[in-house]
Amino acid sequence: MRIYPAIDIKDGQCVRLLRGSFDNVTVYGNDPAEMAKKWQAEGGEFIHVVDLDGALKGHGVNAEAIKKICESVSVPVQTGGGIRTMEDIEAKLACGINRVIIGTKAVSDSEFVRRAVEKYGDKIVIGIDAKDGMVAIEGWEKTSEWKAVDFAKKMEEIGVRTIVYTDIATDGTLQGPNVQAMKEMADSVDVDIIASGGVGSIEHIKALLPTGVEGVIVGRALYTDSVDLKEAIEVAK
């Protein structure tokens, strides 16, 4: 299992939200690129970056900060937030991004995902954010008609190879991931599932090991020193 240290960017700063709420923001630093270098130095093999402003506004906002991150590290970087067009994907890849995560747009337009996968293959990742098992959209402000597992199956049919699965209820809480939901998702589809939300300790990471997820995103726990990245990587391996 791989550990993905997370960098969430809002107004050019490193932040974390609580349960996805833009009213509950904690700032952890004003230099995302420096943070990325820190995580790489501690053994991070893949950096997970979210453009929170982009997620809310529906277009990439923090391109400069994301480009700097890519230039600062030699490990691959994946990013999401506000990816709505092929141009958005191209712009992110031009910054040096390795994988682009499509969220809201995938729910409203599966044909767009199909075209993106045909053109960019496994550089396309789908972000499924679930509220009570249903897919949430538009910066988690709304809930769609889709059950998370059913939507994942549809994405698998299209050719998607990697899904970031976030349980909104646990996100940023440090209370532990929704292990059952992650296992159900990993069992339901034959794609790589990256678990996201709730990791607050090394024990939480250990709890995900038997679920079959490919990786786990760790955010707030790294910034509050609840989880040591080097130790987390050792445990995951």
Q: Report the end-to-end length measured between terminal Cα atoms.
A: 6 Å
Q: Total domains, how many?
A: 1
Helix content: 25-40%
Level-1 CATH class name = Alpha Beta
The Cα radius of gyration reads 16 Å
Number of helices: 11
Shape: globular
Strand order of the largest sheet: 1-4-5-6-7-10-11-12
Question: Can you offer a commentary on this structure?
Answer:
This protein is of the alpha/beta class. The chain has a single domain (2-236), classed as TIM Barrel (Alpha-Beta Barrel), CATH 3.20.20.70. Helix content is 38%, strand content 30%. It has helices at 32-41, 52-57, 63-72, 86-94, 104-108, 110-120, 148-158, 179-188, 202-208, 220-223, 229-236; strands at 2-10, 13-18, 21-29, 47-51, 77-80, 99-102, 124-131, 134-137, 142-147, 162-167, 192-196, 215-218. The protein has an eight-stranded parallel β-barrel, surrounded by seven helices. The longest helix is centred in the middle third of the chain and has 11 residues, at 110-120. The protein is globular. It starts with a strand and ends with a helix. 48% of the residues are buried. The mean pLDDT is 93.
